[in-house]
């Protein structure tokens, strides 16, 4: 199970989750409601990119990785 606990697996899981949000919103509420969810997704993407950059620029100390 340890090999699945990494950043890229978590990213792929979030991509699947957002896909389900868009799919279910489209099916249950219609196309107009999907357009209302797009700014929320855009804000999430901005935050995700900024945290990804921070992870690579400022990695955690070695003592915390144990």
Structure characterization notes:
The longest helix is centred in the middle third of the chain and has 27 residues. With 66 residues, the protein is mainly α. α1 runs antiparallel to α2. It is built from two helices and no strands. The chain is elongated and about 50 Å long. The model has no long low-confidence stretch (mean pLDDT 86). It starts with 6 loop residues before the first helix and ends in a 9-residue tail after the last helix.
Count of alpha and pi helical runs: 2
Helical content stands at: over 70%
Radius of gyration: 16 Å
Mean pLDDT over the full residue set: 86
> What class would the helix/strand composition place it in?
mainly alpha
Q: Outline the biggest β-sheet.
A: none
**Unreliable spans:** none
**Distance between the amino and carboxyl termini:** 17 Å
Beta-strand content: under 5%
Order of helices and strands: HH
Q: Indicate the overall shape.
A: elongated
Tell me how many strands there are.
0
């Amino acid at each position: 199970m340890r090999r699945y606990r990494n950043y890229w697996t978590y990213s792929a899981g979030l991509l699947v989750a957002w896909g389900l949000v868009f799919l279910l919103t489209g099916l249950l509420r219609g196309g107009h409601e999907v357009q209302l969810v797009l700014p929320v997704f855009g804000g999430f993407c901005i935050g995700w990119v900024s945290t990804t950059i921070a992870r690579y620029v400022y990695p955690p100390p070695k003592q915390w990785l144990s």
